[in-house]
Amino acid sequence: MAATKNVTLNVFRFNPDVDSRPRYDTFSLEARPGMTVLEAMFEVLESLDGSLAFRYCCRGAVCGACAMYINGAHRLACKTQLDLVGPTVTVSPLPFMRVIKDLVVDMSPFWANYEKVMPYLIERSQAPGGERIQSPRQRAVFDDATCCILCGSCYSSCPSVWTGGGQFLGPSALNKAWRFIADSRDGGAAQRLAVVASENGLWRCHTAFNCTEACPKNTNPTQAIQKLKGRAVLHALTGRGRG
Question: 189-196 and 171-181 are packed helices; what angle lies between their axes, rounded to 10 degrees?
Fold first, then answer.
């Protein structure tokens, strides 16, 4: 039988409807080898405190729902093994985001900004009646940006988000704008650049690299934003958003 070990789990608790201030509740668990933080929280929910609130969905590091602040870093709870973060694990909600309850934060500003960049292909011309062919080289231009799972970690980590009053589009939205502007099949570059090339868009990014460090999928939003700045300047000088 695989050996277990004792783990101390400190979990952020706050219900704004009834609590005057946040607190941390401490739970002692017997952790199995390979046990994740998400599994530990399910054990708390099912056996120790059924009022604990947190988000989850796929349990496979694909949906981004369980993004949290674990032992001082943005991580996915379903991907983070207790063995790798130590005998004491402190779990908090994504920083600088309004807490709805416990580990559940309000993602509304994140999604509202994401929607503004039109995160979908815009037809360049009439549909060709078949597949729009794209070469591996054309795909490679924006390949990294497609790995974003919209977990909100980069948004939570960004100083410009903290100080922007909710107006800054944020790294994920800008990364997604680059993903489509760089796509050879898309015809909406000018429309998106009109949205992102603004004080609350590209020019509020100060290249802190927090977003790249926070990304649990190892994408590089900072690089995407710099490329997007280049396209914005090109468009302003020549009227071309692609090239």
Answer: 160
pLDDT per position as a tens digit, 21-67:
999 999 999 999 999 999 999 999 999 999 999 999 999 999 999 99
Cβ contact 161:201 at 8 Å: no
Asked whether 53 and 103 are in contact (CB, 8 A), the reply is: yes
Please compute Rg for the chain using Cα positions.
21
Q: How many residues does the chain have?
A: 243
Go through 211-220 and write b for each residue having 16 or more CB atoms within 10 A of its CB, e for each that does not: bbebbbeebb
| Full set of structural domains in the chain with CATH | 5-105 (3.10.20.30), 108-238 (1.10.1060.10)
CA distances from 168 to 155, 175, 195 (A): 10, 13, 11
At residue 17, what is the residue type?
D
* pTM of the model as a whole: 0.92
**CA torsion 116→117→119→122, rounded to 10°?**
110
